[in-house]
Design brief:
alpha+beta, OB fold (Dihydrolipoamide Acetyltransferase, E2P), five-stranded mixed barrel, 30% helix, globular
Length: 162
């Protein structure tokens, strides 16, 4: 009797596990389909859905995308003028300019381009790549606007501008 009961418990656990695994697989496939559909239709990123509103703004692109052109320090104010990023949406910024600040706390590197009174951009990254103050660099990453003159890119990549 004990052996029959043990076999029943094992069968029940296998049956439940199989049903849960199948349901999880269907759920995962549905989530992937919805993500692809919403991304293609522009519904996931409303800021991008309105006639690709970012294509007219140098240096701005959707998540993990490249803009048509990078923006320089001189063009940053015009690029972000009137830009509203809905909460939860990600917009990437690709900007070039002279490195004005570099600091490390031994875990992260903080690189900034552009000078006051213009818009300043800080890149939070994992390496300073041996860059020095005054070098012209390209920084790109997920943009968060702190105010009209301060932008933080996190995550961010930095390299020497070509």
């Amino acid at each position: 009797m004990l052996a029959v009961r043990a076999a029943y418990v094992v069968h029940w656990r296998y049956s439940i596990t199989t049903q849960v695994s199948a349901a999880a697989m269907v759920s995962a496939k549905l989530q992937i389909f919805c993500t692809i559909f919403l991304s293609l239709s522009g519904l996931k990123y409303p800021a991008l859905a309105q006639g690709n509103a970012l294509s007219d703004r140098p240096g701005l692109a959707g998540p993990e995308e490249m803009p048509k052109q990078n923006v320089s320090c001189e063009g940053l104010a015009a690029t972000i003028a009137g830009l509203e990023v809905p909460s939860g949406d990600r917009i990437d910024l690709w900007a070039t300019g002279p490195l004005t600040y570099i600091h490390s706390d031994e875990a992260l590197w903080y690189l900034a381009i552009c000078s006051e009174p213009g818009v300043q951009v800080m890149c939070i990254t994992y390496s300073g790549n041996g860059m020095k103050i005054g070098e012209r660099i390209l920084i790109r990453g997920g943009m968060r606007m702190l105010d009209k003159t301060h932008i933080v890119l996190d995550p961010c990549l930095a390299s020497r501008a070509e």
